[in-house]
Amino acid sequence: MAWLDHELPENEAADVERHVKGCEECRSRVHVYEEAGDLFEAYCAAVMELKAKRNRPLWTPVLAGAALIAVAVAVLLAFLPVATKRPTPIEQLPVHALSAAPAPSVVNVGATSTRSSQQRHASARPQNSGRTLKQNPARNAGENEGADWISGGQNIQIAIPADAVFPPGVVPEGVNFIADLSIAADGSAERLDLRP
Amino acid sequence: MSGNSLPLALPLSRLATGESETTTLYRELRKPLLRYLVCLGLSMDEAQDVVQDAFLGLHRHVSGGGSQENIRGWLFRVAHNHARNRQVSYERRFGAPLDPEFDLLLDEATPERVVLEKEKFRRMEKAIRFLTESERECLLLRAGGLRYREIGEVLDIPTSTVGDTVDRAIKKLAEKCNV
Fold it and tell me: How far apart are CA B30 and CA B37, in angstroms?
């Protein structure tokens, strides 16, 4: 092997070479050793190639997934503030709820509008079905004209089904409530007054 | 085979100052180092880390005025020691079968060739299990282009022992592989 690997001194290498040339058995052995060495190297190359290939599919989907997640998060962050700042206005309540409502009751929201910037008003009116309540259209019209219902200092009228608040039969039919609701800075209900 | 890649002593006098020399060295030795480490049982990621560490170490070594002789042997020795520190189970990892995914490497070959190559590799894989750790390392370093003297320096054994070990290992492989 040392001769094959050119590790012998020149004079020794020349002797071995002369012998190998004249010896069939040694030539055969040399061939076998060369082949074994080549096969070992091919095997090592295959191991490396295989590990390199195993490496690729592991990372490619992970990186692609991470990129997708990053894009999705970026899109969410871009649109989320807008979405959370704008509560659904009364005007956008489902049409069937509005059309199913009876004649409007009088809710004087404007009278309380100066009490607190965080004050909210709600009107509740139980129905036979107990399912639909409606905000005051007269007030809606005024608010629509005012347009800027989001800005601070204005009241928001929220229609809440009576069934969602009271047990069935507790509130007599045809009775409306005006609820003055103050909301604290942390979002919790600070004060709730119900007036018939 | 082992004497045809790089001279024993690389021109390291310029390594500390000339970036091109470092780059050349990196280009020439990166792949043999990677192959050696991967065949020792490291994953490709680990092997790449070790190679980077070895070259960083080389930079510090040369910057600190260390010996500039036989830098190839120095690099292999450093990488070898790093690899040893990382290996948890040398036997298990080196002996991990390749067979299930051999088709990946032979996808452009004819079916007959695929069968033959797979059979050859399978025999080689079995034969390697009969080698001692020292024999495997000697063969791997030899396959990496190192001379017997360099292999001896990496493994900290005499050059004559390297010759005997390589001889014994090749004979074992030839016998077990029925070459």
Answer: 11
